[in-house]
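Is this the right way to post structure tokens for a design question? Let me know if I should format differently. Anyway, here goes:
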């Protein structure tokens, strides 16, 4: 609902020919509508505005004069009550040809209409739940109306409280009785278009998608009101990394927090009028559990495994591409991930050193990407070359007091004079089970 109203500030001229039912000859008039008002015409309360001018001009073929019959011309301002009403008759000022009232209405008569018998009355009529303003001119009989004689009505103040912005206020004209100043039909002109003078935020409530780690900028436009404007966060909060520029209404920054964020913004114009609007911003992104992995010492020809957990921290499903380099030294267990909102998945990363790399650690990276975003995990592994494989002992722990049966696997276990100690205690009663295995 508007709280201020003004004219649609461009001139509109409409010509509607009106024909009576007088027998034997035609009586015609032209209705013209002129809008010349500005927002300064709006009443300070914002509940009413001055309607545009409605003008009747006699326009007959050949310019022949016609004699009026006693009757009335009615101007019906549809669906809006007139706030400057008066009852009784207004007398004409013969020097100026005007009927005027301190409430603002001015009726200007030209030609034969300037007659002491012309009077005006304003009231509001009720039709169901709708109130319409009615301005009636009483026209006496016997007026000789010539070409160019006119009636101009302006200064009507209509209450537009409750009228939606961009709707029209129209005025219909008719006469009574139908044989006096009669029109062929009910003729309608638009006399005003309602404009909400409050600032109004035009941006969609669902803002464009943001992505964690990427630069984001969104302009929040406003129409109406009197610039400059000031923006504030009324409720809620922006995601971390974004800020609102209060002088321009621009959301900008690099979000570092994913999810769906709801907040309400208020814009205030230079006259203190304001409006609010709720917004939703979806910040899409994914997170990694680590930024780097070390595989430690891995024997050449074998593989070491580590894991990275990938999490969807937005509200939309994500397709994530994964890769490792250099391959085949480093590889990932899955190259294409589909994650629903709020879910995670562990990805295995393998380190398989092909040689000892001259004693230098192997370095590489694992990358995870969505359109516009690439995240990496730094990888390092140390290749080790052994002349003999390590031993394995089962169980891996136990008492050193003796009488425990254990199994040992390895190479070169049966060399003469070999002594095997575990935990500093020398083993005894060794029995060969097979090649490379003792108990």
């Amino acid at each position: 609902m508007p709280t201020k109203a003004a004219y649609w500030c461009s001139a509109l001229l409409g010509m509607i020919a009106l024909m009576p039912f007088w027998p034997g000859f035609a009586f015609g008039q032209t209705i013209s509508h002129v809008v010349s008002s500005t927002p300064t015409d709006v009443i300070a309360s914002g509940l009413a505005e001055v309607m545009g001018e409605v003008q009747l001009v006699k326009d007959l073929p050949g310019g022949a004069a016609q004699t009026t019959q006693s009757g009335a011309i009615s101007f019906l301002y549809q669906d809006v009550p007139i706030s400057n009403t008066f009852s009784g008759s207004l007398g004409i000022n013969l020097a100026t040809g005007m009927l005027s009232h301190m409430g603002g209405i001015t009726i200007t008569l030209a030609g034969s209409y300037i007659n002491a018998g012309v009077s005006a009355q304003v009231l509001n009529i009720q039709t169901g739940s709708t109130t319409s303003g009615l301005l009636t001119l009483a026209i006496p009989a016997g007026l000789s109306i010539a070409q160019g004689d006119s009636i101009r009505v302006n200064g009507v103040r209509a209450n537009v409280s409750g009228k939606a912005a961009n709707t029209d206020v129209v005025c219909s004209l008719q006469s009574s009785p139908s044989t006096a100043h009669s029109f062929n039909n009910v003729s309608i002109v638009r006399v005003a278009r309602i404009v909400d003078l409050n600032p109004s935020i035009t941006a969609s409530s669902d803002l464009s998608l943001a992505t964690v780690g990427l630069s984001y900028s969104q302009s929040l436009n406003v129409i109406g009101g009197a610039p400059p404007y000031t923006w504030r966060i009324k409720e809620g909060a922006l995601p971390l990394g974004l800020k609102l520029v209060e002088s321009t209404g621009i959301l900008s920054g690099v979000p570092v927090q994913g999810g769906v964020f709801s907040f309400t913004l208020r814009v205030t114009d230079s006259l203190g009028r304001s409006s609010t609007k709720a917004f939703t911003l979806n910040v899409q992104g994914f997170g990694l559990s680590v930024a780097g992995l070390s595989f430690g010492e891995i024997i050449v020809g074998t593989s070491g495994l580590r894991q990275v957990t990938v999490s969807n921290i937005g509200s939309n499903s994500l397709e994530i591409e994964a890769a490792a380099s250099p391959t085949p030294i480093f590889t990932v267990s899955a190259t294409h991930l589909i994650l629903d909102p709020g879910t995670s998945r562990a990805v295995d990363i393998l380190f398989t050193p092909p040689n000892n790399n001259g004693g230098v650690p192997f370095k590489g990276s694992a990358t995870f990407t969505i359109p516009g975003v690439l995240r990496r995990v730094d990888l390092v592994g140390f290749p080790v070359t052994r002349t003999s494989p390590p031993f394995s002992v089962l169980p891996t722990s136990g008492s050193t007091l003796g009488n425990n049966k254990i199994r040992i696997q390895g190479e070169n276990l049966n060399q003469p004079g070999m002594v095997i100690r575990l935990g500093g205690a020398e083993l005894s009663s060794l029995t060969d089970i097979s090649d490379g295995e003792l108990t």
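Format looks fine. Someone answered above. Worth noting: Confidence is low (pLDDT under 50) at residues 1-27, 36-40, 182-186. Residues 391 and 410 are 5 Å apart (CA to CA).
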